[in-house]
Amino acid sequence: MKSWRLPLLLVSVLLLATPAVAEPLDRTSLIAALCGGAGQMGEGASTLIATAVSGSAEERAWAAPLARAVLDRDLACDTSGAVLVQSGVDAVSRTPREAGEKARKPLASLKNRATFELADAALALRSAPDIAARAAALKTLERRPANVPEGLLEVAAASEPDAGLREQIDTLAQTAALNSSDPAARIRALSRVADTPSRRALTKVSALTKDPAYTANAEFRQAVDAATARIERGIAIGDVLATLYNGLSFASILFMAAIGLAIIFGLMGVINLAQGELIMIGAYVTWLVQQGLRYAAPSLLDWYLIIAIPVAFLVTAAIGIAIEAALLRHLYKRPLMSLLATWAVSLFLINLVRVIFGTQNMQFETPFYVSGGVPVIGDFIFTWNRMFAIGFAVVTLALTWAIVRKTPLGLNIRAVTQNRDMAACIGIPTRRVDMMAFGLGSGLAGLAGLALSPIYSVNPQMGQNFIIDSFMVVVLGGVGTIAGTVVAALGIGQINVLIEPLWGAVAAKVIVLLMIIAFLQWRPEGLFAVKGRRK
Amino acid sequence: MTRISRDRPFLALIALLVAAALTMGMLGGTPFELSRYLTNAIGQLAAFAVLALSLDLIWGYLGILSLGHGLFFAIGGYAMGMYLLKHSFAVTGTVPDFLQFMGWKEFPFYWAGFDFFPYAVAVAVLVTLLIAGVFGYVSFRSRVSGVYFAIITQALVYVAMLLMFRNDTGFGGNNGMTGFAVIFGWPMGTSATITALAVVSLLVLAGVLVGCRWLVGSRFGALMLATRDDETRLRTLGYETLRLKLAVWCLSAVIAMIAGMLYVPQVGIINPRLLAPELSLEIAVWVAIGGRGHLVGAVIGALLVNAVKFWLSSAAPDVWPFILSGLIVLVVLVFPNGLVDLARLRVARPMGPKRLSAEIGEAR
């Protein structure tokens, strides 16, 4: 079976490689060829292909329907030329006329059929008015990159208005050049392909090791090997970067979820089990802001993520202050009871949201600044929504640090965290500091919800997915230190992302937990606990 | 024993449990027997009460809050489920659902021997002791306590849930195990079996209650209270609190495991939902509502909360979470020692000095 394919390939490559016709197209003789025997039809098809590559716009528009007409048996040949039956026009002059009495519809042979399909796709790629048809033509060409006529893709790319499709054409051009008959062109193509390493490029290049030229031509073999090595290196770099980037974005989410928890825990020893629900409420507030903008100011809709920042912070901070004033105020000396009380609050909030909004996921617009990404190297894509989360976390970190380190409130928070009784003795209003700090911690949870809304699904249950991870961050980081939270979030985020591809998400969670338990053997109070602060 | 004989609420509860068990046993098969739903509900409540007792032992009397007791409950439940499935398979020849789901031809190798009940119990006890022992040892040795311990136990049960949700673990995966046909040769689902299970659960509850009462009333119980209230001082006096805590922790885990073994044949299903952190938190809520550090309180809390849940989850399922959260807030704020306060008609003022001193052990 295989033996006949190679000669066929060579023949078709030779046919396609006929030098481009510079002289104007002889329309009458082309139609005659199409109506002729198998050999003549083959020549006609290659003329059509040549027209697609180097014909003028007018010629291409004229030739465009012909290949399809032959394939669909829509061309009726009679004594005075041929007629396109469907549209009822003369094939040469395109003036309306009926087909003659003894009209014959030429049938493309099996070999010619492939050439005509190629011609049809080539013409469509050059001259089809709508983008979908051009994309479809490109798909047809992609099926046999070895047969794509030389030069076609270059000119098609040059005239292609759509950037996305142009990129696809360029990719195909590289692939086609890899399979071209000229060894020098193939080697050039190899180095071009290796410039943009990706798993697809690797498959393409490594397929060439089975090419006969690989064993026959030493120069070609060297080029293939060099390209493979370069692409593999690029992919490896890309994978490392992608892991780092994903770990960083996961860490930034963990940090956002945990920083509020850490402030509250450090200050009053209260584990706020409702923190996850405050995150959830932050996301819902973001959704409400989006809906509000949709009705009030549709032109600002894209900026809802920015506009929602103060709203989400203030709403969740207010809820936090309310929880503190109504409940936790009475439970400071009983941290385990406040754990249960905040769990009651979280249960209440989940069900309240469920009753009001239902259990379905909320639909969010994707503003332009969080959609898409930039391919960097290998398969690593620098996505904007993750970048948004990272940037948001960095800004939040800076602001939180500034509040805790540079403001009177922060000074009070640190004093109360270090020694509540002594702080009270020197006149710091510890109860009010508690309230403010609880508001700050809750507001940070609200911001976390906002940062999550472009990445995660937003529903009443979402808070539960973060609460245990953020506990782990707080336990690992040590009570109430910003630095501890940052380092622990980075560590847990990176470890998770490193383990996940190897053994899966569940194993990652198991290993992280075991590592934390092991770590607590060494430092029971966490990474950055200050000695002697808490008993 | 003299002290126990003066503990009227305890004696009343024991008498009530035994009387209920006897009445249900005697009325079984007569026209006066309780409805199957009610009998089953009573049996499940008894299993939950045993679970609450296990947590009260470690939290109320040792001051260690575990938010992962669902793990031990589930170990008992899974062992029971494995026994029931293999037993049913041997008797009726019905292929268990989870084998069909996974397209497996036979049971995984670690299911061997589970058709023999004592073996299933032994494995459950060993696994419970192993997990509780290792985890307890590393935690207590490095003095992880209070909120830290609570969080780590919650993470533990959460991780266990993620593991069991996987279908390839050979324990039924996310669908769990169901379709139990027979238990000890009797068909499941008949009135006689349901009554027998409920009676056994009530008697086990009474037995565990007596055992715990004896333990906390003994010298060992005094040491437990001393550890809760001032561990540092106790250590200074030369007592080895690590071993004491570890022993109570393992005992508590085994009791929770027994509760799981009672629970599963009565609900007829075991799935990873039992390992959800919410269930483990709820156990603490039962104990807190009933009265932490009072065995009777823990039982009453578990019975009360779950009875209300049984009733409301069919009557008004949307309202139940609101009622539960309201109950928690009420108890935490108004009755800091749970409903036991109500029984003594001593409503505490918030943040009273007496309460502070009572809670000081917990703050550490």
UniProtKB/TrEMBL annotation, chain A:
**What membrane topology does the UniProt entry give?**
Multi-pass membrane protein
Sorted keywords for this record are: Amino-acid transport, Cell membrane, Membrane, Signal, Transmembrane, Transmembrane helix, Transport
List the transmembrane segments. Answer: 250-271, 278-297, 303-327, 339-357, 387-404, 437-458, 470-490, 502-522
PANTHER family from the UniProt entry: ABC TRANSPORTER PERMEASE PROTEIN (PTHR11795:SF447), BRANCHED-CHAIN AMINO ACID TRANSPORT SYSTEM PERMEASE PROTEIN LIVH (PTHR11795)
The molecular function terms in GO held by this entry are: transmembrane transporter activity
The leader peptide range reads 1-22
* GO BP terms in the entry: amino acid transport
Q: Where in the cell is it found?
A: Cell membrane
Please report which protein family the annotation says this sequence is part of.
Answer: Belongs to the binding-protein-dependent transport system permease family. LivHM subfamily.
The name of this protein is Urea ABC transporter permease subunit UrtB
Q: Name one GO cellular component term.
A: plasma membrane
- Output the InterPro entries linked to this UniProt entry: ABC_transp_permease, ABC_UrtB_bac, BCAA_transport_permease
Automatic annotation (TrEMBL), chain B:
InterPro entries per record = ABC_transp_permease (IPR001851), ABC_transptr_urea_perm_UrtC (IPR017778), LivM-like (IPR043428)
Residue ranges of the TM segments: 41-64, 71-96, 116-140, 147-165, 194-216, 242-263, 283-307, 319-340
Q: Where does it mainly reside?
A: membrane
Q: Name one GO cellular component term.
A: plasma membrane
> Which positions make up the signal peptide?
none
Query: Matching Pfam families, A to Z?
Result: BPD_transp_2
Q: What topology does the record note for this protein and the membrane?
A: Multi-pass membrane protein
Task: Give the UniProt keywords, A-Z.
Answer: Cell membrane, Membrane, Transmembrane, Transmembrane helix
Q: Which PANTHER family does the UniProt entry name for this protein?
A: HIGH-AFFINITY BRANCHED-CHAIN AMINO ACID TRANSPORT SYSTEM PERMEASE, SLR1201 PROTEIN
Q: Write the protein's name.
A: Urea ABC transporter permease subunit UrtC
